[in-house]
Amino acid sequence: MYLTKEEEQILNGEAGETLRQAIGILVALGDIYGADRLIPIKSAQIAGVSYKTIGDAGLEWISDLQGRVKVPAILNPAGMDLEDWERLRISPEFAEKQKLIIQTYAKLGIRCECTCTPYTLEGFDTSYGDHLAWSESSAVSYANSVLGARTNREGGPSALSAALLGKTANYGLHLDENRVPEISIHVEFPLKGSDYGALGYIVGKLAGSKVPVFHLKTTPDVDELKALGAAMAASGAVALYHVEGVTPEIRRLNFEDPEEKITIERKQLDEVYETLNKATREPELITIGCPHCSATELEKIAKLLKGKTVSKELWIFTSRELVKRYPEYIKTIEKSGAKVVCDTCMVVSPATNRYSCVMVNSGKALAYVPGMCGAEAVYGNMEMCIEEAVGGNTAKKEGGSH
User: Fold this and answer.
1) Full set of structural domains in the chain with CATH
2) Which of 93, 242, 245, 375 is deepest in the core (most CB within 10 A)?
3) What is the rounded average pLDDT for all residues in the chain?
4) What is known about its subunit structure (predicted)?
């Protein structure tokens, strides 16, 4: 792997121990994956923020680092709402450790908005063709697929290293040849809303780490694309996908349709929704916002909850910036008794571990909640989730149209 004279000096420790470690991580990854050089990046998004997932060892490592990031960098969700952690009954001991993690990242010049949807934030713009070092799986998928930017799914340490250097290793999805469709997915029936999360949950298991191209009867909006990619990244390892006639790369470039083809049938999606009727327990907690809710989704939730009162715990996850930008939606949602939560999500917060059955409208959450929270997960669309929160097991008795 070619290094410039300046990069060699950094690797030799002439710019300090922190940058020596950082470039060492990137060079090691580059050597493993056959990178020819380091390339500049526009921004970084760093995972490894929740104390639940990194523990004391992770906190100790980042505490030893010094310096400032060279590019705009932002954090993934933490383990709690940083301003109102007591509301979800987070322990003071956990909160103290979590605050230390955030303070440590802040000293490195990293923006401490903790969100899995950094592309919704002001001043964190990403354009077609930009090289990035992002690490949250759904954000990586969105950047590659919906925005047409280029990033591998970085680990927390490699994304942080890239932020400190302003560079990443040139391999994987930074290269044209690795962005070509490898498997063709055909869906011959219309899709709507949470169908896309269910579709992603199915296709992720089938595609693994391949690049799929979708041929759909309906045109997904950006929230549906977000849900599709997030689910595939969680149930599989899909970091880039294309949708014929929709996503930017497939519209700009002439890709041949792959020989490998899979047709998805309606009954496969129905089986995902059937998790609600097959659950061994009633949902005790209903969560929406994995990935974090957009402004459009917050507006929809507010309309569904207006004039209603929840009878079960209902948590809505979004970024703090959107909460401040749309106070009228938040006021309507919280008037129902639902909780709007920032900085965290149901997967990385220990708060979820208290519940035995969680209802979600996210294919990503459906894939992650059982393993990371130790709870049974059941699936429904947004309307079904609201019904369950307001009317107990109404959604289960009546089923739900999707």
Assistant:
1) 5-176 (3.30.499), 180-272 (no CATH), 275-393 (3.30.499.10)
2) 242
3) 95
4) Heterodimer composed of a large subunit (PMDh-L) and a small subunit (PMDh-S).
